[in-house]
Amino acid sequence: MANIRNLAEASTPFGPAGLRAGLEAYEAADVARVAVTAFARIAEAWKLGNVVAADLISVSPRTWARMKTGQWSGSLDRDQLLRISALTGLYKALHLYFSDTLADRWPGLPNSGPLFANRSPLEVMRAGGLPAILQARGYVDALRGGL
Description:
Shape: globular
Oligomer: single chain
Helix content: over 70%
Number of strands: 0
């Protein structure tokens, strides 16, 4: 009996470690699918081309084209998940602060704020990657909060 218990607890596909790894892989795939679906809706609302959308989440335009049509079953790394999370938060914050029409146009409009220096938030976020995306989100959150 002890041998059966040890076998079940071993790091095999049948033991707890294997089950945990399988569950984590399933959860990662599920999270990636939901994140990509959310970002696809944002990209559509913001009228982003494939290159711009791909740059924002740090994938190739070809990969993005597969992602947005549901023909992709890959995974996202931590950086990519954080980018999509921050962009989703930015999208929501914009819709809380502005009308829907302006909220969806704002990322592409030149902005005189110190963070943007008369460039569009999209330009700044593409050039600056995750730190710039987080700063843009913080900027809008500060506007909403009156900071």
